[in-house]
Amino acid sequence: MKTAQDIVLFGRSVAQTSDTFCAPAERRISGGCQQSMNNFYSDETGQFHAGLWSGGVGAWRVKYTEHEFCTLLEGRVRLTDTAGRSVELAAGDHFVIPAGFEGIWEVLEPARKTYAVFEVDR
């Protein structure tokens, strides 16, 4: 049984992982694609993860095999699908990127978001 001590508070708990990275060169379209991720929680199956992500201005290709719920805390981003349709998101927006989405993730202004990811095929 889980207790109140098992509740993970972002910013108060120590992140399980803290990584700074760039999108792989073969996926980069523009900009430095600098990113950082602090994963605060992963479940015992390895399918569910939650944490904080931030990224600098740039654009890169994405192919989602997982479902991701996000809340944009700062900045602006644009997601464009392979047909060229796009949605622009700003601080305060809550959104889900479904598994199977392919396209471009573009950071228009330095951005920060919370994320909750469910990996479908694990």
Automatic annotation (TrEMBL):
Residues in (S)-ureidoglycine aminohydrolase cupin domain copies: 44-115
Gene3D superfamilies attached to this UniProt entry: Jelly Rolls
InterPro entries (UniProt xref): RmlC-like_jellyroll (IPR014710), RmlC_Cupin_sf (IPR011051), UGlyAH_Cupin_dom (IPR008579)
Coiled coil: none
Domain of life the protein comes from: Bacteria
Pfam families: Cupin_3
Name used for this protein in its record: (S)-ureidoglycine aminohydrolase cupin domain-containing protein
